[in-house]
Specification:
The protein is an alpha+beta fold. It is built from 10 helices and 11 strands.
Length: about 400
Amino acid sequence: MRSPRRQPVAGAATRTGPPVSPAWMRWLPVCYVAVVLILEPLTPVDWPVSFLLVALPLVTAFAHGPLVVAGATALAVVLEGVLAGTPCCAGRSVGYLWDRHYVADYVCTVLVGALGTILAAHRIHRERTLADVRFVADIAQRVLLRPLPRRIGNLRLESFYLSAAAEARIGGDLYEAVPTAFGVRLLIGDVRGKGLLAVETAAAVLGAFREAAHEEPDLAALARRMEQSVSRRAAHIGGSETGERFVTAVFVEIPADGRVVRVVNCGHPPPLLIRPDEVRELDSGRSGPPLNLGMLLTEAHHIDSYPFRPGEQLLLYTDGVTETRDANGVFYPLARRLRSWGPLEPRTLLDRLHHDLLDYSGDRLQDDTAALAACLLDGGPRSVDDSSEP
């Protein structure tokens, strides 16, 4: 059976309490009792099916609390007594009621009921603890990848983050959009590695970008500033893997009047420019090395410029998208998929991409995925700090 579809991380974190068990699990004890009651009169007297009621408390403990389990235990003992001493139902004389086998059955049911009550209480405690942990993780995710404004100036923005692990909330993929005096500046990146260190590095990169995006006059200077920041961060952490703690990133600048998009690529998958009649990969072949590998850079970061007209859309994504594989190990054909879908609104595009990635991989993503879509709206220049809804 497939796992439930995972939702992209977005919006405010809310405390929802322990998860609710599926309906079939909540009704399982009732069905279990019904099956026993049906089978009991159909089986020979020498085969007392009522003994199966010993398991009722444990069946109930899967989805219900201690009080319900205690009630199910009492019900099981009563039903066992009724089935043991009711001739009309089980074909047994009243003398069977206190037969030693049935007395042992009552005792076992009570003991199993006590165990089931303890297990139910422990399960609820664990579920509440897990709910608290998820709530804290949602808060951390919101601080790390805060929701982007849906509109900045004449740009429509949408994003999503999809974790490879269904229960995970945060990872090393990152994105941001900042309105500045130089235009709207976008960032998408991927921290090498997993775990807490990757999350800490992603937080440091986002913090540095949010500050430097307002101060550096061009994208090349911004990329150099980010290179220095990531290098200092790696050196501060120390260890034998300092040189391997790098971040692939793409920096994008869209001036207030639109019409052009500038790109600096630092070892990251190139953005895609989506037009009504084509999907173009913005790759000049002059990508620089990832951040913290600046020693490999033989020349200054190169800024590539491309026309960007109203109605066109820019898609930034992490390698978790293009490295998604199907059952045969074939990589996800992102550009071909986008061409087949035709023009879509940014939110519709990302929702379609989200579900298509899960379908393509059979709900078995191997890496976190993040994507950011920016669509240039018609209507002329607008203030870059206007984040209001249209």
